[in-house]
Amino acid sequence: MTPAPILVIGSGGMLGGELLARLGARGIGVGHAECDLTDPAQVERTLAELAPRCVINCAAYTAVDQAESEPEAARALNAEAVGQLARAAARRDIHLITISTDYVFGGEGEEPWEEDAPEAAFAPRSVYGRSKLEGERLARAAGGRLTIVRTQWLYGAGGKNFVDTMAGLAAERELLRVVDDQIGAPTWTRDLAGGLELLAERGATGIYHVVNSEYCSWFEVARHVVERLGLPARVEPCASEDFPRPAPRPKNSRLAQGRYAALAGAPLRPWREALDAYLATRG
């Protein structure tokens, strides 16, 4: 008997596409046209027709700055739709993995945020962060077999991302000024997809932080890209206040990976190693 598939919702996005490619015949993908998460009837119909053993939700409202002026749109997809999906999955005893973010944390201090951080740690500074935190809470309230994966700073093929943007700008400009006071971990979607695959195959539930290991600033990422590609642009550090954005960014986005490392036997590889591998795929 052919095992039930792993359903990837949002398979047309940067992460969803990478994940679907990794799963191969074990996966089946749906995009917005096939399954609009904000439409409960479509969600119910999709789960009933495809009968997956696991659902990995990669769909999200990710326009962080735009969310400040579109809070209802962000909440509809990142919160209400996630809650609806979780309830539908729980009724069918389907394992649900949904993607969250470092933006659920306030960003104070310098210590990495643990998976079971105390309630006081959750003080998102943006509409996007608040919508993702609400999505986590609604999913947990639904019960059922649930995995929340917090990740951050994604880059990869098939989507707009910081790494490709820096590579393009460095080929056109003599000077790049990049913020040096926001700390986290750039994460390759290919490595994250491997982590999601492991969680799905193990049936692991709970909260996991899945990011490439070690920490850096956006400035360090940009400098690494420019150096590895041999581009002539100079990269200089600056403060977040030098580039004000509609949505405030957390300054401490360090995510501890203890729970994932215990399950997998090791955390994901260091960010420099992953980034070098990605840059090699770009030629």
Fold and architecture overview:
This protein has 283 residues and is an alpha/beta fold. It has helices at 14-23, 40-50, 71-91, 127-141, 162-170, 189-202, 218-229, 258-264, 271-281, and strands spanning 6-9, 27-30, 54-57, 95-101, 146-151, 154-155, 175-179, 183-184, 187-188, 206-209, 212-213, 216-217, 234-238, 268-270. The protein is built from 9 helices and 14 strands. The strands form 5 sheets. A 6-stranded parallel β-sheet has the order 2-1-3-4-5-10, with helices on both faces. A two-stranded parallel ribbon has the order 6-9. The chain has a two-stranded parallel sheet with strand order 7-13. Helix 1 (14-23) links the parallel strand 1 (6-9) and strand 2. Helix 2 (40-50) runs parallel beside helix 3 and helix 3 (71-91) runs parallel beside helix 4 (127-141).
Q: Which labels suit this protein?
A:
alpha/beta, 283 residues, 39% helix, 14 strands
Concise synopsis of the structure shown:
The chain has 283 residues and is of the alpha/beta class.
Walk across the major sheet and give the strand order: 2-1-3-4-5-10
Contiguous helical run count: 9
Biggest sheet record: 6 strands, parallel
- The portion of residues forming beta strands comes to 15-25%
- Stretches where pLDDT is under 50 for at least 5 consecutive residues are none
The radius of gyration is 19 Å
The count of β-strands is 14
Structural class: alpha/beta
Q: Choose one word for the global shape.
A: globular
Mean pLDDT: 96
End-to-end distance, in Å?
A: 42 Å
The level of helicity is 25-40%
Order of helices and strands: EHEHEHEHEEHEEEHEEEHEHEH
